[in-house]
Amino acid sequence: MTVKITTHDAYSERPWKAEAASPTPIAAEIMQHADVKISKVLFTRDSSSQIVLLGKGRGRCLKLWERDDGIDPFKVLSTQNCDVDPNDACTMTDNRVCIGYADGSLSIYNTDKDSLALMAIIPSVHSGCASRAVCRNGNGILSAGTNGTLEAVDVETGKSRSVFSGQAGIRSICTTFGGNVVMAGDANGQITAWDLREDTENSTALVLEPYKTLIPSKKALDAVTALCSHPAQSNLVCCGTDDGVVGLIDARNIRSANITSTYLIAKRGISQVAFHPTCGDSLLVSSNDGSLLRIDASGAP
């Protein structure tokens, strides 16, 4: 299903209705049971041949799968059982992935040998609260906690530095402008941006002051559950909310960033948003109602 996005300030419900007369392309699907409730699926390589799955609840675990030409579309390369639920994952350099857990801890795995090789375990960086979202920040990691803290973590030493604290529980994060700017969406429905180039060591502030705060939804307390930045246009950021709203943010000047358009495209919360890494005009949106949409974002600013 293709949705055409154009830039305007109106809040639009079901934007694909305008294209009702055009045929709807049917994407080929493959399916394989994971035997666990999945909280995240992550491609570990550019070739999209290998994925990491995070299983939560009963049977919580990490799984490494690879595409296969056999009876099943994937073969299981490795499985690691977990003591607590894994909440989020992100890729790093040198075939590494970082996992954030419900107790606030982080783990680093290497997938180079077609297995999940544990490299490091970092104790809770959120005072025992959950690490809800993680993303790469140069050679380190940004971890967002349910206690409203955002921590910059050095994975080599395990030390963390507070970027911000005191915000409502953070549900999603992403970086843009070469990792210099971080945006975080919280449970109160706000998106906050910080410039990581600011130096707190030479100032009286213990944490960074936010540059901008945005509210993508008209519904009160509509949590921002997903964020991503464009792989080529660093000024373009997409967000998704718990009420099924997807919005586009023009961040060319971070201090005057604004939401250019919002669309209600799902019946339940948005679970992930992502621009295609090589075809940036395609925006992929998954929802808790089971839908997966490809949106044409070529008209975005």
Automatic annotation (TrEMBL):
GO cellular component: nuclear pore outer ring
Main localization of the protein described in the UniProt heading: nucleus
Keyword terms of this UniProt record: Nucleus, Repeat, WD repeat
Signal sequence annotation: none
Highest taxon of the lineage: Eukaryota
Location(s) in or outside the cell: Nucleus
SMART domains linked: WD40
Coiled coil spans: none
PANTHER family assigned to the protein according to its UniProt record, in alphabetical order: NUCLEOPORIN NUP43
Record's protein name: WD repeat-containing protein 55 homolog
Lineage per the UniProt record: Eukaryota, Metazoa, Ecdysozoa, Nematoda, Chromadorea
